[in-house]
Amino acid sequence: MAMRDRVADLVEGKQFQRMIIGVIVVNAIALGCETSPGLVAAHGAALTAVDHIALGIFIVELVARLYAHRLRFFRDPWNCFDFMVVGISLLPAGGTLSIVRSLRILRALRLVAMVPSMRRVVSALVKSIPGLVSLSGLLMLLLYVGGVIASNLFQRSGDPRFADLGATVLTLFQITTGDGWSDLMRDLMPAQPLAWIFFVCYLLVGTFTMLNLFIAVVCSAMESEIQTPPPTTVPAQRPAVGDNLVLEEIRALREEVRALRLASADN
């Protein structure tokens, strides 16, 4: 077996994959611990060492996969994602690029690329983007129409949450999330007793319908992703030794029957 094939078998092996997953988890925990001043003061050197060791392992793994797959490595989007995450970690973290230090936690997202079940979930989310974009446009239209109606209805109440169209749209977006809509409705009802009609109708359309449609689109994409079988190559099956013996016996019987027919025809 060629050296490149051996490296490919190694990096694609289950044991190696589990080891990388373990390194990702340990690195993520270490990066989280670095946000605690007390832990940094007590174990700062150890946390830095864990971070550097993890980065070294990631670089070695990436180089090995590049060596094994060559340019085919970049045909897989998950490989490109891994390459980008590790590449960001190699940028200098000082001066104007000090924000790169906080981006090291992106290495934890490599766990998504390593675990097949997480990859399926992300793939389903990506497939649902066209439907989500359409629903987002419909929600924006609903917010705009509702904002114009609410401005005309409640602007004269003096409530700053309905002072102009922008504030009204922001208030309706808050209502769409289900946050504090009942308190807002009760604040307006002393001056406008029928204000509850608008809020109940908008809540039914904006929250119970639109948000459930978002969930339905994502669930539909996830269901299709799970039901789609992965492409597999079924190797051609060779006949077993017992099957060969049976075939030989059948051929022998056919020869005997043919010989008997020739003998009866001569007689």
Concise summary:
With 267 residues, this protein is an all-alpha fold. It has twelve helices and no strands.
Q: Could you explain the architecture of this structure?
A:
With 267 residues, the protein is mainly alpha-helical. The protein folds into two domains: 3-114, Four Helix Bundle (Hemerythrin (Met), subunit A), CATH 1.20.120; 129-227, Helix Hairpins (Orthogonal Bundle), CATH 1.10.287. It is 75% helix and 0% strand. It has twelve helices and no strands. Helix 8 (129-154) crosses helix 9. The radius of gyration is 33 Å and the shape is flat.
Which SSEs are present, and which pair or pack?
Elements lengths: L2 H9 L2 H20 L3 H33 L7 H13 L9 H4 L7 H5 L1 H12 L1 H26 L10 H12 L4 H8 L6 H33 L13 H26 L1
